[in-house]
Amino acid sequence: MSGAAPLIDRVTGSNFSYQHLPLQRFLDDAAALGRTHLELWGVAPHAHVPWLSDDDARGIRDAAAARGMRVACFTPEQVAYPVNIASADARMRAESIGMFLRAAEIAVELDAGMLFLTSGRGREDEPRSDAWTRAVDALGEICERAAELGLECVLEPLQRVESNLVNTAEDAARMLSDVAASHLSVALDTVAAAVADDTVDDYFALLGDRVRHVHLIDGAPAGHLAWGDGELPLDAIVAALDRNGYAGLATVELFGDGGYAFDPRPALERSLAAIAGV
After folding, report:
1. Model confidence over 252-270: pLDDT tens digits?
2. pTM
3. 255, part of any domain
């Protein structure tokens, strides 16, 4: 046993799937569902990095605090639109790195101690090593700035359809080694792991206590599904997290699959109930 608080008490509230609703609606629902920590998705209209001022970020922090919650992780949108730190296009890559440097400043204003990162992707017609080098250099620059600001960074492996760089636990371990930033760790995504044929135990065998965040979601095996809408073994996943001493936060990262974005709260309630019942 990890000795940590029960996992259900470490599940964050998150605005994943709330992109078509006001931020206040998300905050009210998260508080009503008993959440104390938040993972804030940096997406319009809630927290779009290029538009968000320091005052805006502090306003979100204060609105969360007024409901008894705090932002623990800031997760800029970095897959669905042209933000790509490994891009072969010099302008796109430079502007993408700049976005993350600004996101680190916003994380400070949110009082979030963690900045969520991914590796970007290379062109499909170039050597993987070229894009890998660009990703290593970009992550190094972002992590250096984050360290100056007192932030921890976590890197999430992505599904192959999302990236051709960091997809597996082994890829993540290699990237951490190449970047060589002591405060860069890994976020384990249960769907990305399942799609890559990795297990929770595989992650901890390779990365140990550098698994510092979890996206705890169901899938079939892909998708960002509420628990019970996919086929992943929640009991076994939670048992493996506990067996490996995981004491960090976990986020139910729902997207529009299954119509969740029309009315997110019921899917979150079902997922929280499933996790609490393990």
Report:
1. 999 865 589 999 999 999 9
2. 0.96
3. yes
